[in-house]
Design goal:
5-stranded antiparallel sheet, 56% helix, alpha+beta
């Protein structure tokens, strides 16, 4: 008498028919197997958690803490009961080969799922740990984890199908290759996101914490998450905008990281000066402008050089056009450049320039190009507004006018 027939033989001796004895024998052994498996799983899990907890206290790294918080020990503890069950399935279903085959396949499928659980929890622990490292904190770790898990789940599902259908794994993959076009169609966004994630990471286009502006999606704020399919941006009004990852390589967006790392934030804005207000300056007008302290020295030196040149060349100054002359827009441009160079909110170590752009139907654009020393948005706007408040108010002192479209008030002096 063998141990696996002990219950069956006992039931037959008590007068139960052989058929019923087989079923009762299987049910009793199955219940015993499940109870023992659950007990073994409970004990092993408790032991693993206790050992891991004691180990994490003694170590200096916090990686093992992430292993515990992501349930890696608990998932690993399930391996021993699973092996125990696989070993005892032939004993439980000794008289039912069909059931034995089905349950064994079920256990093997569960083994695949358990492996995926362990891999996922381990990768999540790695992800949490990497995010604590300064050099990796702004990297799209989520994308890499998701890519690996997608491949792992696909491989696991295909392996499970191969086990259930009893088809060899290689043949199963060969058959699947014929349906690759459908798979590509179904996983189009995932594949695009995967390729985009790699390009974004390799080219260092976007990092977590970068300020980006993506007008197509209405995004203007800080990147808070980068994963396989989407990039989450927290806008300055605290709303969240979700952008497809592949849009970062297919569309145009603006990343302000370079500005934030630089020594200043760029000011680049122009005023349109009316063309008919531009003129040469007479000697009397130059003398009047010398009262403006920022350009007094410049005008004295410049006017002296011009007078010397005109005198040496015997220039007829009865007509102002002849020879060399100062213009009101040129002196105004020099005044603005000197004003900005002396402004406390402008970074003096970076480019400072006041330049003319090509004339348009709206006049001559006079552009101020400089960098604020304070990059904070509110302070930057204050500095830029302060400069242009002064600039706009200074224009009439040089007998210049700013172009603007006429309004109702422009015609108040006209009578019908």
């Amino acid at each position: 008498m063998t141990m696996k027939h002990f219950i069956y033989d006992y039931l037959v001796e008590t007068g139960i028919s052989a058929v019923y004895a087989k079923y009762l024998n299987m049910i009793i052994l199955l219940i015993a197997l499940l109870v023992i498996a659950f007990l073994v799983d409970y004990i092993i899990k408790k032991v693993f958690i206790k050992l891991f907890t004691q180990f994490t206290v003694k170590t200096k790294t916090n990686f093992d803490n992430f292993l515990v918080s992501n349930r890696v020990p608990q998932n690993i503890a399930h391996i021993i009961p699973l092996i125990f069950g696989l070993e005892f399935i032939p004993i439980v279903f000794q008289d039912f080969p069909y059931f034995e085959n089905m349950v064994e396949k079920g256990f093997k499928v569960f083994a695949i799922i358990l492996t995926l659980w362990i891999v996922r929890s381990l990768l999540n622990a790695l992800k949490d740990y990497f995010k604590t490292l300064p050099r990796l904190r702004d990297k799209p770790i989520d994308s890499y984890i998701q890519v690996f898990m997608i491949f792992a789940w696909v491989l696991g599902i295909l392996s499970a199908f191969a086990i259930i259908t009893s088809i060899e794994f290689i043949k199963f993959f060969t058959t699947l290759g014929a349906a690759s076009a459908i798979i590509i169609l179904v996983f189009r966004d995932t594949i695009l996101g995967f390729v985009a994630s790699i390009q974004v990471s390799i080219n260092d286009m976007v990092r977590i914490g970068d300020w980006i502006t993506f007008e197509k999606y209405g995004a203007d704020g800080d990147v808070i998450e980068i994963n396989l399919s989407t990039v989450k941006v927290q806008n300055f009004d605290k709303t969240i905008t979700t952008i497809p990852t592949y849009a970062l390589i297919s569309d145009s967006f603006k990343n302000w990281r370079g500005m934030e790392r630089s020594e200043g934030r760029r000011i680049k804005r122009a005023l349109n000066i009316k063309l008919d207000s531009v003129s040469y300056l007479t000697k009397e007008e130059v003398d009047t402008l010398k009262n403006i302290s920022l350009i007094t020295s410049y005008l004295e030196t410049r006017q002296s050089d011009i007078d010397s040149y005109n005198s040496e060349q015997n220039i007829n100054k009865d007509i102002l056009l002849n020879g060399r002359n100062l213009t009101n827009i040129g002196v105004f441009r020099k005044y603005l450049e000197t004003y900005i160079e002396n402004h406390s909110g402008v970074n003096k170590d970076m480019m400072i320039m006041v330049r003319q752009l090509a004339p348009t139907a709206h006049g001559i654009p006079l552009e101020i190009y400089a960098f604020s020393s304070d990059k904070r948005w509110k302070n930057y706007e204050y500095i830029m507004a302060d400069i242009f408040d002064h600039t706009i108010a200074a224009v009439p002192y040089f007998n210049l006018e700013i172009f603007e479209y006429p309004s109702n008030s422009s015609f108040k002096d006209f009578k019908a």
